[in-house]
Design brief:
Elements lengths: L16 H14 E2 L1 H9 L5 E5 L3 H6 L6 E2 L5 H4 L8 E5 L7 H11 L4 E4 L2 H7 L7
Parallel strand pairs: 1-5, 2-3, 2-4, 4-5
Length: 133
């Protein structure tokens, strides 16, 4: 069994406070928690489109009410189905799933206004918010 070397603390990358501030500013502008998304939807949500990029099976198990379903694997081929005049909030399974991050990246590169729902459907459910089936 191979032993992975441990990096000494001096080898850990550091960032200046200014670099960290820029990083966290960008992070905050790209993410919303489930309570924020629910509040926006409760206020009417006309300027939003919620995008579920999970599998068909995952979507069928339950999704954010009104979510558009577009599996990540089909996103590139079907991206034109998404509204350009709305801010798109992507989500997937949970905090460790990167499908929504990848989808948000693809959409941003194509000119969409996009954010990510932190924690995915798991965080939405854990907050006690309704799901559709």
């Amino acid at each position: 069994m191979a032993v992975m070397p441990v990096r000494p603390p001096s080898a850990i990358a550091t960032a200046s406070p200014e670099q960290l501030a820029k990083y966290f500013e960008a992070k905050l502008s790209a993410e919303l928690g489930p309570h924020n998304v629910k509040r926006l939807l409760d206020m009417g949500g006309r300027a939003l489109a919620i995008l579920d990029v999970r599998s068909r099976e995952g979507y069928a198990q339950g999704h954010v009410p009104g979510a558009i379903h577009l599996p990540f694997e089909e996103l590139a081929a079907r991206v034109k189905e998404l509204p350009k005049n709305k801010e798109i909030i992507c989500y997937c399974w949970n905090v460790t799933c990167t499908l929504s991050t990848k989808a948000a990246y693809i959409l941003a590169k194509r000119g969409y206004r996009v954010k990510e729902l932190l924690g995915g459907i798991e965080a939405w459910k854990n907050a006690g918010f309704p799901i559709e089936r």
